[in-house]
Amino acid sequence: MKKVIGIDIGGTKISFGIMDERGNLLKNIVKPTQSNREDIIESILTNIRELNDGDIAAIGISTAGFIDTIQGKILFAGNINGWTGFHLKKSLENLINIPVFVANDANMAALAEKWIGNAKEFDNFIMLTMGTGLGGAIYDKRIGFWEGATYQGGELGHIIMYPEGRLCTCNQRGCAEKYIAGSALSLNYEELTGKNLTGYEIIERLGVDENAKKALEKLSRDLALYISTIKNIFDPEGVVIGGGFSETSKYWLNSTIENYLKICNRPGDMKIVIGKFLNDAGVIGACRYAFLKLEENNG
Ligand SMILES: [Zn+2]
């Protein structure tokens, strides 16, 4: 049976998975991420060799940044040295002789959710990935993923929420990802207390620390404001929230929905749900993408 390898290059780890045509994830290995191109390519080659039993028809790669999905070229990525401008598809194909397909990580997470996850029923939806930052994907059945004129579309984390607000890594001020992400919760808490804790540490203190509660209430309200804007721009059937921080959703999802229903002018029936795949979304999406591209290329 035909198989593919899916690779998810994240901020702290690279995950590799092997999947058969029926969608079974046969193997999944996770390695720490290096922050430069040479080490990442080395890790990819070593792990492909380990996983390849001779039946691998294609490789799908999910990575952050602006990706030219036709050339498989990284147009811009701030997280890995040497990644910007790199022809990832061509370079790997020259080395391993297997077709390689590259796409944006938030889109791949959305693809996994659309295929066998919590976006299965949606013909159009918005995916938000809340981790260290805030990623976004815009999907419509008729057009697929919205990539924009220069592959920079769907950067939902960089919608300006608070003019002159917190400085973002993208150099704008007041971007949504400085208010709605795991790291944003830390910033909320720091503004109240002067202390620097991780998002997870703050969640752990909810019962005993009034400021932890306030910091989370702000995040929840900001998320509701933001989703109200999303509703007015895209009118999606659903908003699916994934990424590592969605693990903590039981502490904020209900209040976010309540706030959204209060804030939004026409909340309608739009659903707000948590993604099904926490850590595997990238690998599953990348595998699915590789299968879809193979089908497309074979006519
Ligand atoms: Zn930004």
Please describe what this structure looks like:
The chain has 299 residues and is an alpha/beta fold. The chain folds into 2 domains: 3-104 and 279-297, Nucleotidyltransferase, domain 5; 118-274, ATPase, nucleotide binding domain (Nucleotidyltransferase, domain 5). The chain is 36% helix and 23% strand. The protein is built from 8 helices and 12 strands. A 5-stranded mixed beta sheet has the order 3-2-1-4-7, sandwiched between helices. It has a 5-stranded mixed beta sheet with strand order 10-9-8-11-12, sandwiched between helices. β5 (66-68) and β6 (73-76) form a beta hairpin. α3 packs across α8 and α4 (182-193) packs across α6. The longest helix is centred in the last third of the chain and has 25 residues, at 210-234. It is globular, with a radius of gyration of 19 Å. The model has no long low-confidence stretch (mean pLDDT 94). The chain binds zinc ion. Residues 158, 168, 170, 172, 175, 177 line the site of zinc ion.
Strand order of the largest sheet: 3-2-1-4-7
Largest β sheet strand count, sense and barrel closure: 5 strands, mixed
Assembly category: single chain
- What is the helix fraction of residues, given as a range? 25-40%
Q: Strand pairing plus helix content: what structural class?
A: alpha/beta
The secondary-structure element order is EEEHEEEHEHEEEHHHEHEH
Secondary structure tally, helices: 8
Number of domains: 2
Supply the CATH superfamily name of the largest domain.
ATPase, nucleotide binding domain
Number of DSSP strands? 12
Kindly identify the CATH topology of the largest domain. Answer: Nucleotidyltransferase, domain 5
Question: Mean pLDDT, rounded to whole units?
Answer: 94
Heteromolecules bound: zinc ion
Low-confidence stretches: none
Radius of gyration: 19 Å
Proportion of residues in extended strands? 15-25%
**General shape:** globular
CATH architecture descriptor of the largest domain: 2-Layer Sandwich
